[in-house]
Sequence to fold (398 residues):
Amino acid sequence: MPLHKTHNHNDFDDVFASNDLEVSAPKYRLPERQMDAKHAYQIISDELMLDGNSRLNLATFCGTWMEDEVRRLMAETFDKNMVDRDEYPQTAEIERRCVHMIADLWNAPDADLAVGTSTVGSSEACQLAGMAMKWRWRNARKAAGKDGDKPNIIMGVNVQVCWHKFARYWDVEERLIPMEGDRFIISAEEVLKLCDENTIGVVAILGSTFTGQYEPVVEIATALDKLQAETGLDIPLHVDGASGAMIAPFIQPDLEWDFRCERVVSINTSGHKYGLAPLGVGWAVWRNQEFLPDDLIFNVNYLGGDMPDFAINFSRPGGQVCCQYYNFLRLGREGYAKIQQNCQDTALSLAEAIGKMGPFEIIHPGNDIPVLSWKLKDGEDFNGYTLFDLGERLRHRG
Fold:
C-alpha cells in the first residue's frame, strides 16, 4: 500500500482558480457530479451579493439585525422540528412559556391557562384565527338549525394580503370597507353597515401597513356590543396585531385594544417584526378555549407520543421560537420599551424633518406603530414626478 495518495491538482487550487468555478452555475438541472463544499458556498455567497442590504430596506417591517447570541441559538436549533414535541420536549416547553408571556402581555383573562400557538408568521396565525371564527359561526348556525353556507368577514381594504388569502382559500365572502377621503382605516360606523347573521367576525388592524395607524378597536367593540343588545347578533372581533401588538403593550400601555375588550376573541402578531425575533415566527392567542373549536385540533401520535397540533404548516424549525424566548429573557418589559420608544422617536423625528421639506404632506407621523407615511401635496405641479420616482432615487443609494 502506498504511503502517499495521488492528489488531484484541483485539491490545491484557489477557489477562484478551481474547475468548479470555470463553468456556469447549474440553474435548471441537478449537476451530475459533486463539488467541493467551499466552492459551492462561494458560488451562492457571491450570487447573494446581488440582493439588497436588508439593513437599508426602508420598507420592511421585519427585523434586520440580531445579536450574536441569537445567531448562535439559531445555529444550535436549526435541526429541531417544532412539531415533534415528543423528541424535543424542551423546545415545546419554551413555546408554551412564550404563549403564556404573550397572553399576559395582552391581558388575557387567565394567562396561565392561555390557548395559543407559534406559527411560521402572522400570515399563518391569521389563517388560524379566521378558521376558528368560521368554525364557531358554522357550529352555532348548525345548532340553531340554520344553514352555514354563506359566511362573510368584515375588514378594510388596507388589510394585509393574508386576509384576502384566507377569504379565498376558506370560501368566505370578503366585505371590504373602502378608504375614503382622509380616512385610511376602518371605523365602527362603516363596520355596522356590513354586519349580518352570516358575519363570522370583524378584523381590526393594530398598525395598518398602509399608514401605520391603529384601527379603533374599542369603538368597534362598543358598536358590536350595542348591535348584539339590539339584534342578538354576536359578532366576534379579531385584532391583527402583526406589528402593534408588540409595540402598544410597551409604549402605549393604557391603550385598550387587547383582551381587556371582551369582544376581542383572538389576537395575532409577528414575532419577527417588533417581537425582534429572526424571520419565520408568529403567534396566535385566543381569549380562552371556548373560542378555539376542538375539531380544528389534530392529535398526532406517529412522532412518538400523542400530541395536539393546530397549524397549517407541520414540520418547521424551532430556532425562531427559542430566539423569541431569548429576547423575552434578554430584554424584558424594560428593554422592549426602550427599543420601541427609540423606534417611535426616530419615526417622529423623520416625520418632522420630511414635513419641513416643502413638497410632502405627512399622512401619519409614526405615533402609533413607528412607521411614517406621507404623500406629495395636492394641487401642486411636480412635472410628473411621483413617489415611485423618489423610491427609484433612494434605490440608487442602496
Observations:
- The mean pLDDT is 91.
